[in-house]
Design brief:
Structural class: alpha/beta
Shape: globular
Strand content: 15-25%
CATH class of the largest domain: Alpha Beta
CATH superfamily of the largest domain: ANL, N-terminal domain
Number of domains: 3
Oligomer: single chain
Number of strands: 27
Distance between the termini: 51 Å
Number of helices: 17
């Protein structure tokens, strides 16, 4: 098969177009059009508290003016350090209205992790979850974060839930502790920003080619860096999602569940852009809790439920335990890691809907491929390239030579959703973009029908629970521990998270080896999903002739039980 051939087009669902229109507008137009066309439709559902599109539009307009008065202008980076909540959506679009660049962060990052990213992007304004705002305020002065806006997400909850959290009982105290923190000194409350008048139409809007988001990713080399996504990239991917479901019309009562964090590329596109473009009810969950999801399902079953396999599995098990029917979920979309075919069967039996697997990367906004919503969907594959997307399998040694059908090689892709490069990293950008083709770093193969399958990864990223983890970042934290001489982090297959992080260490002579104490210290410097599940001891790490640790060899040793666990 050559890149000129596109057998997958014959297997698109009826009505799916081969191409989407070229994008000439920016993200604020998307939300403004929906506000105008469907002002009374529910835009956001936050654990039962509803925000209509007219209300959301007003909040965005006022927040944009508030940020403008604080000095935010076109091209400025604005850090968002927020969980899923209504304010996250309003803040994101307020930044876009000004032509600013939203830099998404995981709010559970440690101070060390946040510092590395702030050092890279240099944002001077941050909009932050109040519970973790102090971490941003405590960043070193040389980072020049001049303005921290604090959001108390409990204000967006229904009155009954806010009251319950104030009750003098243990469960209420624990719930409040998970979601609330006092307003730190030096932070500006979000409510003050919203007291501004609506932004003037005279304030220029961004262009389609402007950068909208810096999405941090471990990329194809394993080094965390910021992928630059333009308004055109994100809107193109939204149009591609819309094209994949031609029978679902905008404003027709679509319900999208945001169980995945919208600071993640997958959650961002399906939640922040696709849902808003469809005038959907976006059901927001601050963190995945199967009981909260089941409660929401009873009222408003999902038309689209984006997830990763561990979430799907947990939701099925909890529904069975509580004897709650999942009937009514129309389409489950799985990404982030391989989807076991047995899970597909369980899900479709429980819901009466379909579960389709897709594939993408932060650098591609992120969706590149997805299975058709027809009987032709191919369990075990990542599906077909979406509209306006080209893909080819090339030799790992010669990117000009395309592999025959069924033969593995590196997957290269091209389309309007492909990013424009990495922030301040021209060399690494050039290494992955070749004549418009993006090197995914994944080894794949394609069958005669055009269905693609991922078979291996060139890059050494660990994908755990749908999140990409750079081994080098984990290793850096482990080597900093007392007594550790060397370390290698690898991903080991795990039925619950796709891969679990296991670190092999070489200890300094005479140093004690206490894996649990080491993991406890690592929790202070790494986000929970980056903390290794296991730490094992080796006498030495395998290396190549120039001294580079061979992680693949380490992984093979651990898989074959050649480690020395404590």
């Amino acid at each position: 098969m050559t890149s000129a051939e596109k057998p997958w087009l014959a297997h698109y669902a009826p009505g799916v177009v081969p191409t989407v229109a070229a994008v000439t507008e920016s993200l604020p137009n998307i939300i403004d059009r929906t506000v105008k066309d469907f002002p009374n439709a529910v835009a956001l559902d936050f654990l039962g508290a509803e925000t209509r599109y007219s209300e959301l539009g007003d909040q965005i307009a006022r927040a944009a003016e508030g940020l403008r008065k604080l000095g935010v202008k076109r091209g400025d980076r604005v850090a968002l350090v927020l969980p899923n909540c209504p304010e996250h959506i309003a803040a994101f679009y307020a930044v876009q209205r000004l032509g600013g660049i939203a830099v998404e962060h995981n709010p559970l990052y440690t101070e060390r992790e946040l510092r590395h990213q702030f050092e890279d992007h240099g944002a001077r304004v941050a909009i932050v979850w109040q519970k973790v705002a102090q971490k941003v305020l405590d960043l070193p002065a040389d980072l020049q974060v001049s303005t921290v806006i604090s959001i108390d997400i409990t204000r967006g909850l229904p009155a009954s839930k806010r009251f319950a959290m104030r009750l003098p009982v243990k469960a209420a105290r624990e719930a409040r502790g998970r979601t609330w923190g006092p307003l730190p000194k030096g932070a500006i409350p979000w409510e003050k920003v919203l007291k501004s008048r609506r932004i003037s139409d005279k304030v220029p809007r961004p262009q389609a080619s402007d950068i909208a988001v810096i999405q941090y990713t471990s990329g194809t080399t394993g080094t965390p860096k910021g992928a630059l996504l333009t308004h055109a990239n994100l809107i193109s991917n939204t149009l591609q999602c819309q094209a994949w479901i031609p029978d679902v019309k905008r404003g027709s009562g679509v319900v999208v569940y945001a169980m995945l964090p919208v600071f993640h590329a997958y959650g961002l596109t399906l939640g922040l852009t696709f849902a808003m473009s469809m005038a959907a009810r976006l059901v927001l969950f601050p963190a995945f809790d199967p009981d909260l999801v089941l409660a929401a399902h009873k009222k408003h079953p999902a038309t689209y439920l984006p997830a990763v396999p561990p979430i799907i599995d947990r939701l099925l098990k909890r529904a069975a335990e509580k004897k709650v029917s999942l009937r009514g979920v129309r389409v489950g979309v799985s990404g982030g890691m391989a989807l076991d075919t047995s899970l597909i069967a369980k899900w479709e039996a429980a819901t009466g809907g379909v579960l389709i697997e897709g594939y993408g990367l932060s650098e591609t906004s992120p969706i590149l491929m997805i299975n058709p919503i027809t009987d032709e969907r191919h369990a075990g594959s990542i599906g077909l390239p979406v509209s306006s997307t080209e893909a080819k399998i090339v030799s790992r040694d010669d990117h000009e030579t395309e592999q025959p059908t069924g033969e593995p090689g590196e997957l290269l892709v091209r389309g309007p959703q492909v990013f424009s490069g990495y922030w301040k990293r021209p060399g690494e950008t050039a290494a992955v973009l070749e004549d418009g083709w993006f090197r995914t770093g994944d080894i794949a193969k394609v069958d005669e029908r055009g269905f693609f399958e991922i078979v291996d990864r060139i890059k050494e990223l660990i994908i755990t629970g749908g999140f990409n983890v750079a081994p080098s970042e984990v290793e850096e934290a482990v080597v900093a521990l007392d007594g550790v001489q060397d370390a290698a982090a690898v991903g080991i297959p795990d039925p619950h998270s796709g891969e679990k992080i296991v670190v092999a260490v070489v200890m300094q002579p005479g140093a004690p080896f206490d894996p649990e104490a080491m993991r406890a210290t690592l929790r202070e410097n790494l986000t929970p999903y980056k903390v290794p599940r296991e730490i094992v001891r080796l006498d030495e790490l395998p290396r190549n002739m120039i001294g580079k640790v061979l992680r693949k060899k380490v992984r093979e040793q651990l898989l074959h039980g050649e480690d020395q666990k404590a």
